[in-house]
Write a structure and sequence with these properties.
By secondary structure, the chain is of the alpha+beta class. Helices cover 24% and strands 27% of the residues. β17 and β18 form a beta hairpin.
């Protein structure tokens, strides 16, 4: 089955055997509830752990999830209806709404981990954020770089040699440093609890004229940097902001509703592990209200850095995350197809429906709006702790 089939479904193609963890907003509890999806049936697991962060600290997690007798909420196909992108009236709000599957984890991201992202970041830098220059610079750089960066191990002696050659030719870039140098780019993408989930709006700034989705794999780790499972992500990016200056990375990356993760975290077990992530194919599908369409599929095997190395560079003696962290692994697809006038390339329009999909992780579907018009983020850490205390879930 093509990854482009059944794009609204959050479930993976092998949902009957997958072990999925997520979160739903429970109308009765007026707050979020951790869930497990086992055999396409949804269970409330809040009595096993009130947060996903705490859940991922448990030993033998896959065994505990499969043996825990949580409250059955219903069949996944009944609970997770296709998104309608309308804010329901108070009396019509659904009993359950699928949320992003992470909660207290820090949201981190890696950049420039695929050859395509290396080239596009250098294009942004040389264009200084001006989309009108992008296509000309892209052609020049392809001619200059050729295949020199192919199959180069970051931090190796060969990488150091290529660096000196490019410096001598005046082609070196800060993005090439993190692409083939010893240190990966790792940054904080968004505040804790701010990520959007399947069926949610995602936001771009209205004053951005050059931006794009970044379809990615996301690893979710516990406080000891042990990788518990994986999800899909969209690291929404403003190319013009970051292109003007790398010091604008915060404004280019962290805006209202600019981080999407979901639909579930697939927990590592006998059927799915880190090698499954390394071999995964990920697709991006974009449909605009102006009839614009974009489809592309790529492979995680094209990563220039290994996922375990990125996790090790994120968390260790110098960086600790007591509630765990989610780590975007970098974008493997960068849309450059013209949208509108020739040479303009791709940029988002309000109303775009973006689908990131992978056979073993399902489909993450979001719709684009302006960040200032996205549903306001009001349920933070204080609200979560108050809600859990009210429900008697703290101190377990």
């Amino acid at each position: 089955m093509s990854l482009f089939d059944a794009v609204n479904s959050p479930l993976p193609q092998d949902a009957e055997t997958a072990l999925l963890v997520g979160r739903v907003w429970c109308a009765e509890a007026e707050g979020p509830t951790p869930i497990a999806v086992i055999g396409s049936v949804v269970y409330d697991i809040s009595r096993l752990a009130p947060t996903v962060s705490q859940l991922f600290e448990l030993p033998d997690l896959a065994v505990q999830l499969r043996s825990f007798k949580g409250k059955k909420l219903g069949a996944a196909v009944e609970i997770f209806a296709a998104p309608d992108w309308q804010e329901p009236a108070a009396e019509q709000k659904p009993t359950f709404k699928l949320l992003t599957p992470i909660d207290l984890q820090c949201i981190k991201a890696c950049g420039v981990t695929f050859a395509v992202s290396v080239m596009e970041r250098v294009v942004e830098e040389h264009a200084a954020g001006d989309w009108q220059l992008a296509e000309k610079i892209r052609a020049q750089l392809k001619e200059s770089f050729g295949d020199r960066l192919a199959n180069v191990e970051p931090g190796s002696a060969k990488a150091a040699e290529i660096k000196q050659q490019l410096i001598a030719e005046g082609l070196w870039s800060q993005y090439l440093e993190v692409a083939i140098g010893p240190d990966a780019e790792v940054f904080t993408k968004a505040p804790t609890l701010s990520a959007m989930g399947w069926g949610d709006w995602i936001g771009i700034r209205e004053d951005s004229a050059w931006n794009n989705p970044e379809p990615e794999m996301v690893l979710v780790c516990n406080s000891q940097a042990r990788i518990i499972g994986a999800a899909l992500g969209n690291d929404v990016n403003l190319r013009d902001f970051e292109g003007r200056s790398a010091l604008l990375l915060g404004k280019g990356k962290d805006n209202n509703a600019s981080a999407s993760i979901g639909p579930f975290i697939r927990v590592f077990d006998g059927d799915f592990d880190l090698d499954s992530v390394r071999r995964a194919k990920v697709s991006l599908q974009l449909q605009g209200e102006d009839s614009f369409e974009f489809r592309e599929e790529s492979s995680m095997e094209l990563m220039t850095r290994d996922a375990e190395d990125l996790v090790a560079q994120t968390c260790g003696r110098d960086h600790q995350y007591p509630d765990g962290f989610a780590l975007y692994l970098g974008s493997l697809i960068a849309p450059t197809q013209d949208r509108g006038e020739p040479g303009k390339g791709f940029t988002h329009a309000s109303g775009d429906v973006v689908t990131v999909a992978s056979a073993q992780l399902g489909s993450l579907v979001n719709k684009v709006t302006w960040s200032a018009k996205a549903p306001p983020w009001q349920f933070g850490i204080t609200a979560l702790m108050s809600n859990l205390a009210k429900r008697g879930l703290l101190g377990q």
